[in-house]
User: Which sequence fits this backbone?
């Protein structure tokens, strides 16, 4: 390992996170189902295909425009199940709370978790509470794990991706990261920028049921759209090209990114999904998405190309083409 | 809720933890499988009975005689699956790491996790890493979730417990809590006191396979043996009586408890199980346990009685009887 100590970038979801996973976790916990880099592990239990995933949430601040750590913790894990084609069923909730934490805030967060799952068919069935002394945590951290069932006939994998397949993003990018940053730094942009944090299982169920040939899905959280697209092409025999002007970005997010020097391509989303779909079905899937309020701004933003393999290219608005890499360093720590 | 702010005792596993669960989590996340107070939720997935559990580990210090946070994090979750009669299969691992944490220590902990699961048949199949700034966590916290299969014919429940059933403890009590305390306070008792932290699934499989009529099991972790026995009798129409002199306690643990004024009955264990078994099979189960190195000091320590219902009584060495309650407050925060 290059670093002798853990840095914030090891938790960024970008290059150093990948290095940690590849050099430490994967060799050590070596097994076929292992999915530190995927969204969920796929397990075979007595003939049933089960998806299993975990995420810890350390977002700061705990409340932000459009959501809170509770809504985030259940949405994120539901989405990690949904993007592998699973129907989310059961969640766990593990709370690590700092001594002195306001009980009324805890109640508000727990109620937000309940409200967020209320229309998803998901139950929180097991939990745990630990309390650490003042200074031992920053208010509250939540871990959620999720279990879902992958129905017969669903088999999403990067290995079925072919040249010509289209790339869809289900809506505007960067909303979550910019909403959290705006709240954290008290920038006063809050009215126009809201986190997109939401459970996407209902919307994903619709497109899976449509019969469209969906090859692969992933939610572009930490590291943003750019990192997710790189994860898709990484070590593959194909690349991806996306068109800058086709990527939906809210005006407020665009403005704040410009002012602060951020690139929306690297900003975290918590209610969006990247879909790789056969060219034939791309418009159909996009139209289904547009009917759902969570994905009304869905757009086809690019396609799978043979060269350069393993790379993501961006055609810029002014006509240039540049290669976009995974997130390096960490622009925005503790975004989820 | 009586308290306006979270106290360390809310994470003790004792009375305030139960209040938090009963007054906040249970009403909010209301569903039949919910097991905040049990060891694992039991779920029916396409006809397969699945056990699902979660625990966060915040033990301080991270290394202690007999184990470390990694060994603890996998053992604890494996044990929560095993005591509901499930065969542990898959674990998740979620790391919350403080910026600056020593990479070599992280590697040591991850390798300890791997070593601990190596003979259990359990795989770590999914994970997550978050990094928080200096001061945002105390080194490292680990959350693990576990999935296990409950085989046909196994149905452990407090509802099958009857008067006359025997209570077995699988070995000496208080070792884990006293080992951690001793290390934390640098008391220098370390040579004689070691944590019992270990995965018990192999040992439990043997007694389940013996055909003995085992009614219920639970691992007496936070809150110790006294709290676990109280959880078993709580709101039931029976009570439990245990004999003080039958309870195995290591000399070192007994001595340290006496010096510091702790009661071993309330000290956490991480490699022990409380078993409620029919009177007819008690000796048989105890003998099977004694053949396993992890339970060589197993003992029948008491029995189920009709009165006083809902209470745990202790017959003391000098012949008296007193009622022992759940843990109140928190004697030893961050023991697991």
Assistant:
């Amino acid at each position: 390992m290059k670093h002798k100590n853990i840095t914030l970038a090891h938790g960024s979801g970008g290059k150093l996170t990948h290095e940690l996973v590849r050099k430490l976790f994967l060799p050590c916990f070596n097994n076929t189902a292992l999915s530190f880099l995927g969204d969920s592990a796929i397990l075979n239990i007595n003939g049933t295909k089960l998806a299993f995933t975990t995420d810890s949430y350390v977002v700061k601040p705990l409340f932000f425009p459009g959501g809170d750590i509770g809504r985030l913790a259940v949405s994120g894990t539901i989405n990690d199940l949904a993007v592998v084609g699973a129907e989310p069923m059961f969640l766990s909730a593990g709370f690590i709370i700092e001594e002195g934490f306001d009980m009324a805030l805890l109640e508000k967060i727990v109620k937000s978790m309940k409200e967020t799952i209320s229309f998803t068919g998901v139950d929180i069935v097991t939990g745990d509470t630990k309390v650490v002394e003042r200074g031992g945590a920053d208010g509250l951290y939540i871990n959620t794990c999720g279990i879902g069932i992958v129905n017969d006939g669903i088999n999403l994998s990067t290995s079925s991706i072919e040249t010509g397949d289209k790339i869809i993003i289900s809506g505007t990018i960067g909303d979550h990261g910019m909403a959290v940053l705006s709240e954290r730094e008290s920038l006063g942009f809050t009215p126009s920028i809201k986190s997109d944090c939401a459970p996407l299982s209902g919307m994903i169920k619709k497109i899976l049921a449509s019969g469209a040939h969906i090859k692969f899905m992933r939610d572009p959280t930490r590291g943003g759209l750019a990192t997710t697209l790189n994860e898709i092409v990484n070590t593959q025999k194909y690349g991806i090209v996306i068109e800058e002007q086709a990527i939906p970005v809210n005006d407020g997010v665009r403005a704040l990114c410009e002012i602060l020097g951020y690139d929306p391509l690297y900003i975290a989303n918590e209610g969006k999904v990247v879909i790789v779909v056969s060219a034939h079905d791309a418009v159909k899937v996009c139209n289904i998405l547009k009917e759902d309020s969570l994905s009304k701004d869905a757009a086809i933003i690019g396609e799978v190309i043979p060269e350069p393999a393993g790379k993501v290219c961006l055609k810029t608005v002014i006509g240039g083409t540049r290669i976009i890499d995974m997130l390096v360093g960490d622009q925005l720590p503790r975004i989820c």
Summary: Chain A touches chain B through 82 residues (CB under 8 Å).
